[in-house]
Design a protein that fits this description.
The protein is α/β, with parallel strands linked by helices and about 450 residues long. It contains 16 helices and 10 strands. It has a 4-stranded parallel sheet with strand order 2-1-3-4, with helices on both faces. A two-stranded antiparallel sheet has the order 5-6. A two-stranded antiparallel ribbon has the order 7-8. The longest helix has about 35 residues, at about 1-35. It is globular. The relative contact order is 0.07.
Amino acid sequence: MRNNRKYGGIWLLLMKLILFVVILNVFIIGRNAFYENTIFNYWGNYAVLILYAANLYFTSRIYRGFNFGSIDLSEIILSWVLCLIIANTMQYLVLSLIEMKLLPATGFLAIIGAQIVFALPMTAIINKLYYIQNPAQRAIIIYSKVKKAQEYSTIIEQHRKKFKIQKIVSNNEPFEVIRKCIEESETVFFLDVDENLRKILLEVCFSHNKRAYILPTFTSVLLNMADMSWISSTPMLLLKSSELDIGTRFIKRSVDIVLSSIAIVSLSWLMAITWLIIRLYDHKPAIYKQTRITKGGRHFTLYKFRTMREGAEDDGIPRLSTEGDERVTPFGRVIRKTKIDELPQLFNVLRGSMSLVGPRPERPEIAKQYEEAYPNFSFRTKVKAGITGYAQVYGRYSTAPDEKLLLDIMYIGKFSIWQDAILLLQTIKVILMPSKTVGIENGSVTALRK
């Protein structure tokens, strides 16, 4: 099986290369057909082609278009559609800039259409062949708490193409029993296993070439963010301060001001239409104001388009939206799925109470409940709250607060302006994925696990 997966990796790399080359050649043919007047001298053409190839590769990496086996086919298809639209739009703007005039857009629309016609069937074929070459791995789950084992086994079972759960083993079983289960499997999932036992079992996995997935803890995430350093010849892990320096804060704030201003101006028509529809629906205020928490635990007023009926929390109990929440209006459901209800937060960014990228701001009442369950939850406020971020891109609305905390700490610990740019681009894809906006379970008021 290992040899099969080894050569499967070479095969997959070849298929990815073929897909990339086909898309690139469609662009070359389309450019020669529609923009013959923009063909430059020998080196000029190569420069344009290299720029486009780099652009295409960059966007495909951001949207995970080559992540066969890691994400669903539907997400891969969405990734390539976005990738081709963005890569070609940028190339269109570059060629227009070189020509000092806006070129006809019909040619690039035709190129995008032709690329999609070729790319989508190819991705479906590669995805199918991937799972033929890489059948579901025999997996076991090692746990200490039955409830957690039940919860995560359900999650893992949703990926039947990738994993086939053979056994769910308690860490209280005799060591030799657990060891034998590991040896008979290909992949091992560790769920909150006792740390000392986990160290020994990981050594077993390593010695027998088994893949191991470990449910992270707050401490393990911090250690993962540490850099390798040396004191004389002694290797040590260096965990740096998460505070942003003055220069970085200045750049981040400048980007927030420029991009939020551009977004407000360019999307003003959409915000005006949304405001009008909400007002006409029930003649109630279209803007919903709510107290949230940002950097340092400071309270601020967050603005959103109102998606619920007026007086939705007249009972005085602050609660998150549930799946199929009856308080949400028909139009509210539409703008929630498309994230249009978040647009007024651009004014929060412009005013400085929020950033474009950062941890999602929580309500003080709900944050207090989360902090009682997870004392480290307040660490999220080491930076400004944001419209989008790690938890918003990689998690869901209903993601448990402890998991959101880990995602937000990953963002804070590895902060960079480049990372912010990637998260902003990835947010476009998130907006087009309805599953990201699914509410918490009915009967709940927060995302805390029952």
